[in-house]
Amino acid sequence: MRLTNLDMDALRSFVTGMDAGSFARAADRLGRSTSAVSAQLKKLEEQTGVALVRRLGRGLTLTDGGEALLSYARRLLELNDEAVSALRGVELEGWIRLGLQEDFGETVLPQVLGRFARAHPKVRIEGRIARNSELKDKIASGHLDLALAWDGGGAPATVERIAALPLCWLGAADGDPVWRRESGEPLPLAALEAPCLLRTIACEHLDRQSLAWRIAFVSPSLGGLWAATAAGLGIALRTPVGPPPSVRLLDPRSYGLPELPSLGLVLYRADKDIGPTAMHLAAIIKQALRETLRGEWLVQDTLA
């Protein structure tokens, strides 16, 4: 049996089209015509012998075969890009200082560190998991080169907008609800120590609806916040990224809670010209987020 070599350019167009939500947007990102991208998709279908997408209303959705190929395609492209980066950057040395919000410590950081270390084994990364205010301060003072943080305004450096994540009320996954509006009792909040951007947002939205609240539990870390929420000590406000199975998202209408806005996720850079190694690390961070976050949350232009 003769093995088929899948076309890497066609795979990249396929993955870009699914990430962008349409192959027309993929064509814009890749600098190609829509007809050229469509031809590449047809080529992949011929190579694999299965239909990869089907039309659903005005859009496209993956077939079972397309869903399977998408997973393999991401891995193939990742390995291809890692190999090229490693060969081109084999002489790169030095160190990079990276900061991340605690929410992304388990979901994004392992991928980022692993990929970067394989591509640039001579470059040392100094990583820091910290709160938003600390990350911004260290970017402003030059103690970090890159920082993935919430967009709280007052940007101290070059900013790249990555995503807009919905804010959510969270409660214990098991047991009775810790609070309902009709109870007449102040809403118990589980929050991080001040200053905390999300704590401020929670209090502001409760005040706007004239809902009484009290701080029921304060934690210096996200792990403590999850533990208190899971134990039913209070309701927390966070994004859907990273909560453990012991907590669940609460429907605002069912519980009489305020509807919430989205929160911007940004990549701060200490300097506009951070050099090729740091730029590659930034690209790996964005790729990891593309694979971790839902497509509708992403700011597409920055992840091209």
Automatic annotation (TrEMBL):
Keywords, alphabetical: DNA-binding, Transcription, Transcription regulation
HTH lysR-type domain location: 6-63
Name under which the protein is recorded: LysR family transcriptional regulator
Keyword Transcription regulation: yes
Record-linked InterPro entries: LTTR, LysR_HTH_N, LysR_subst-bd, WH-like_DNA-bd_sf, WH_DNA-bd_sf
MF (Gene Ontology): DNA binding; DNA-binding transcription factor activity
Highest classification ranks of the organism: Bacteria, Pseudomonadati, Pseudomonadota, Alphaproteobacteria, Rhodospirillales
Family of the protein in this entry: Belongs to the LysR transcriptional regulatory family.
Pfam families with a match to the protein in the record: HTH_1 (PF00126), LysR_substrate (PF03466)
SUPFAM superfamilies registered for this protein in UniProt: Periplasmic binding protein-like II, Winged helix' DNA-binding domain
